[in-house]
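Raw record, unedited: RecB family exonuclease
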Amino acid sequence: MASDLSALWARCWDEELKNRKDQSPSYTQDQYSLTGRASAAYGGKKGPEWWADNGPAMIQRWLDWRAENAGWEIWVTPDGNPAIEIELNIKLPGDIPVKMFIDRVFVLPSGQLAVLDIKSGRLPDFDEQLGLYATGLEIAYGSQFRPEWGYFWDANKGTHGTPRSLARWTAPLMSQLYAEAAAGINAGSFLPKPANNCQAWCGVSDYCSVVNGSKAAGVDPLASL
Ligand code: SF4
């Protein structure tokens, strides 16, 4: 089984790389940022080699977890699609368009709906992402299909974390947050918020002055202050 998963991983990795190249033909693999920290044996970064060695085990953990939690059933949307990587394009109050892809929506053994996001790195401290998904499902399908609970599933441990109540992430709150973010973007305000060793995983850290990015001069106005 392990070698099957390794072969599957390698095939999917190549397909994804090809998709990225199709989207950005001038990009080469060495221009992709490497995420997270790994041991010195991998050069301190989670590059393709680290993923080839660790990714298949993550898939196995998912298979094991699904087998152990057979009472969690994949929800089927009102339009008849299993809720796996579903794409929603909704408008928050105030006519704010939002596109999202939701990893999974489950029907729990209790009969309640729950959104689940699969994480292969550090789990977020905050559950806003899950709250947005609950709001998206409510807007797309009606309030009776708004999930009450959200989970981050940890691919490194093969478990889901504590259930998070999503009740406070209402459509008006999400709308306010997104309206404020859009106003900042439209005003050209991109204030950096360094946290959690972000220079190790942030895709634009090279261009960010607060972490002393090597290419920040000339592109980040803060670099000249
Ligand atoms: S490196 Fe800069 S831009 Fe990236 S997350 Fe950290 S503070 Fe934000």
